[in-house]
Design goal:
With about 80 residues, the protein is an all-alpha fold. It contains one helix and no strands. Helix content is about 100%, strand content about 0%.
Amino acid sequence: MSILSANWHEFIKNLPMFGSLLAGAYFVLRLAIKHGFNAKLENHKNDLNTKLEIMKNEHQKLMFDFEAYNSRKHERYPELYKIV
């Protein structure tokens, strides 16, 4: 019984150290995972913003083309009526 009792006392004596090491490892791992997810999220946000800017430019170009077409169309109507 004395061997078991000595091991038990040694375990109880080292328990706070093991607990603090385990808690520290948990927090470091959690921080590393959180940092990885945040980095991926920032990359994804940057990709989406780039695509959004491309779509805005395309939309602006289409609107300009339509306005130019529409104004030219209305300039051609009087010429067409003169011919008819």
